[in-house]
């Protein structure tokens, strides 16, 4: 580098402890942490080893990102039994997204949507809000429905999870080991684009569950929602035929409006 007086100065050494900037073709640390956060949202509870394998990062690299996300308050350790041990006597730390992390992934126009629905409720009552929620998920059915081409219930449920992920819900399908007449899977949504709106207007969660039921042609059971404080929206999906699903409905009564 040449100074104004024509003297060539030596390049400055990077500050000690500073992260090097991304090289051409590399991701920045910020964008990598965003990818980590999105994966924790979609796959959580998830361990550092799993995240490192998914992202092609070293153990030290992934732990540095996880530590920063923990410090930022966007993820936290999920204490749950059944997590495989990393070494003798020490269980793996499995991570989930916090409400603050959900906010990081959330649409910036949430407050405007809340104000609009409050105005709708004031003008037309709860019935107007319910009608709005129903229309929103009628649109989801029309948009997602054509992508669900499988007749096999398990494959159709997997197609629904893929379609929802494409819509920003960070969805995944997980099998459930349960002694029931009909095999069951859980649809887990690690991100809710309308989280803060649904916190005040649970009609959105109720209408979404009805949309899933219509898309799959079977009864579904909503177990938890992000709007209600869970780290993911979780819905039980029977994977039998429509006739078998009807038989299993007595064992899995719907829980609509779970928040």
UniProtKB/TrEMBL annotation:
Regions that span the bilayer: none
Signal peptide: none
InterPro entries tied to this protein: ArsR-like_HTH, Carb_Metab_HTH_regulators, WH-like_DNA-bd_sf, WH_DNA-bd_sf
Domain of life: Bacteria
CDD domains named in the record: HTH_ARSR (cd00090)
Region annotation (Disordered) ranges: 1-32
Residue ranges, compositional bias (Low complexity): 9-26
Coiled-coil region list: none
This protein's name: Putative ArsR family transcriptional regulator
Source organism of the structure: Xylanimonas ulmi
